[in-house]
Specification:
Blueprint: H1 12-17, H2 20-38, H3 47-70, H4 78-94, H5 99-123, H6 128-147, H7 157-164, H8 176-191, H9 194-204, H10 206-211, H11 216-242, H12 253-263, H13 275-294, H14 299-328, E1 333-335, E2 342-344
Helix pairs in contact: 2-13, 3-8, 3-9, 3-11, 3-12, 3-13, 4-5, 4-6, 4-11, 5-6, 5-11, 7-11, 8-9, 12-13, 12-14
Length: 345
């Protein structure tokens, strides 16, 4: 029986290569090659480990954020969860608890934050934008309230060294290992399981997904829990990497995560996205930022460039979608009164 789905209307190579995700990957390669040739010190052996260390929290948080946005929702509280887990780790360590115990409690705090967000969105039915803006302020306020203007910096050296350690004799930081493991888990979850198909169905139409048997509320709850839990893990890494627990850690990171996810090809309206594009989007922003810093460009200018790139990526998606729809629109026909035959309108 012939396949009639639009996804199979084109050759495999076109479906694989002519996608927005592959365009982002190609752009990433071009930017890396250009930076290696034209940016002083970009080819320095220390550039790669610091680039990965800087982008590691965003890479981690972008994984579950992708699934959340594919459903048509959003979680803007992730950076505040990073700060709250950082403060939890610092307070408990300062009180005499070991780092592993404090880290487990920090992860549990992330789970609780995710359950609260997910319950309000999935079961109470509140808009995720409004809920997570509120919890962004709530979690950040709790974090700042616990420590005030103080910072906890007395962490055991073996744990702070582990956060920046390299794998064997390579230049790859140890944090790459959990990133690769989590990326593999989320790729399989989103693209190769019934749960992932349900995520896409919810993004296309929550009502249709519900009547098709997809547990919409439970799926959203799980995704918000995953988002906050991974954010808490990113907060633990962030704290140990810089050796400082503060209530304002990672302020503004949620915007970088959302920018990377949308740049990677995920539709803000839900129903579309792929994790390999998101990973490329995060690395693209990281490479551009790193290269510009090496050129002594200020942070404000870097933010302007990244913001312009994001706006252009969103506009290009809309323009390309409109162009494709125009090309695929069937030609209208009219019936000739004399001959009774259709003729082009």
């Amino acid at each position: 029986m012939a396949r009639t789905y639009p996804a199979h209307a084109k050759p495999l190579w076109r479906r694989v290569l002519l996608t927005r995700e592959m365009a982002v990957i190609a752009l990433l390669v071009v930017v890396i090659l250009y930076s290696l040739r034209n940016v002083p010190n970009f080819g320095n052996p220390l550039t790669l480990p610091y680039l990965l260390l800087d982008t590691a929290p965003i890479l981690l948080i972008a994984l579950p954020m992708t699934l959340v946005i594919v459903t048509g929702e959003i979680d803007l509280s992730v950076a505040s969860v990073v700060g709250l887990s950082s403060v939890t780790l610092g307070v408990l360590t300062n009180a005499g608890f070991s780092v592993p115990v404090a880290a487990l409690v920090s992860l549990a705090v992330g789970v609780v934050c995710g359950l609260f967000n997910g319950f309000l969105v999935a079961y109470v039915g509140l808009p995720s934008l409004a809920v997570t803006i509120g919890t962004l302020a709530l979690y950040r306020g709790i974090a700042v309230g616990l420590l005030g203007t103080k910072a906890v910096t007395d962490f055991p050296d073996r744990w702070t060294h582990l956060a920046t350690a390299r794998i064997g004799g390579t230049q790859l930081p140890v944090i790459v290992v959990p990133i690769v493991v989590l990326a593999a888990v989320f790729i399989v979850l989103l693209h190769f399981t019934p749960f992932g198909r349900g995520v896409f169905d919810i993004g296309l139409s929550a009502d249709t997904a519900h009547f098709s048997g997809v547990p919409v509320a439970r799926t959203k709850l799980v995704l918000f829990v995953l988002s906050s839990t991974v954010s808490a893990f990113a907060g633990i890494f962030f704290t140990l990497r810089y050796g400082s627990s503060r209530g304002d850690n990672a302020t503004g990171m949620e915007l970088q995560v959302v920018a990377a996810v949308l740049l990677g090809g995920v539709s803000i309206f839900g129903g579309r996205g792929a994790l390999h594009g998101v990973l490329a989007g995060v690395l693209l922003i990281g490479v551009i930022s790193s290269a510009l810093r090496l050129e002594s460009v200020t942070v404000n200018v870097i933010n302007i460039i990244i913001g312009a790139l994001l706006v252009l990526s969103v506009i290009s998606t809309s323009v390309l979608g409109w162009f494709v729809r125009r090309r695929q629109r069937p030609t209208r026909t009219t019936t000739s009164p004399a001959a009774g035959q259709p003729s082009p309108a």
